[in-house]
Amino acid sequence: MSRARWLLPALCLALAAAARAGDEDVADDERLLRACDYPAGGAGLPDVFRNRTPSPAVVARARALLRQCGSEEFAAREKGSAGLVALGPQARPLLREALADPDPEVARRAEGALEALTRPDDPACLEAAARLLGRRRPEGAVAVLLAYLPYAEEATLADEIAAALSRAGVRDGRPDPALVRALADRHPLVRAVAADALTRGGVGGQRDAVRELLADPDPAVRERVALALLDAQDKEAVPALVRAPAAIRSTAPCTPWPATRRRRRCPAMTRTPAASAGPAGRSGGGPTGPMSNCRNSSPAADSSATPS
Question: What is the crossing angle of helices 155-168 and 141-148, to 10°?
């Protein structure tokens, strides 16, 4: 009886300390977003990602302008450059791809348009925005995050989006339909993150659908799904990990998952920042390394790769 007297107050103190720590994390993220001139709350928070996700119309327009940048006519090239800048932040993913264009004039003008746009996004600010979306769960947050996901350049940002989706995409044990549909998305990274988020969110009713991705044609998807299931103590994950190719079962040092996850993630499951050389030695283009096979279709070229 005496033990129970002190155990309950100690538990209450621990819960209060955890709540205070969570509030401090939210306040830190809000301060970071304000420092980046991003909306820190309200209806504007999803716009942080919505405004950075190329719409099908922007993709088509940017493609046409990039072709114009390779015109024989100087005036046409100048108009193409000006048009790319006028598209704003949504054009950035297309411009980064164009840095590796075989036409050096197109690559040079894409580089100039990138420089002419506002300052590049700070990944830490986008990660903070993802965390706040996961906590606040505004209407439409799941669709916005899934649509942006193929354009996430940093592995840590993709992981923060996965963590946010596990919160925003699961309410009272029921998953958001968009998150379930994402299991069949054409983009491998979206499939993998959707499975990870559903597993993190404890959606038992979707476990069979998640397990089906253990046979996904993309080995990186299979490995990420297997690790997520292993984290949930699902024995089905073990054979998949045993069968994983040596390139996936990397022996290189692994980096920790974000938030409270304690298992380790190997570099094979990260999307490294764009590092391939473009024309004239420019850096840019798509990611390289083991995760590059998760981008077997360009999100910009395939605007249907993300759920609506």
Answer: 160
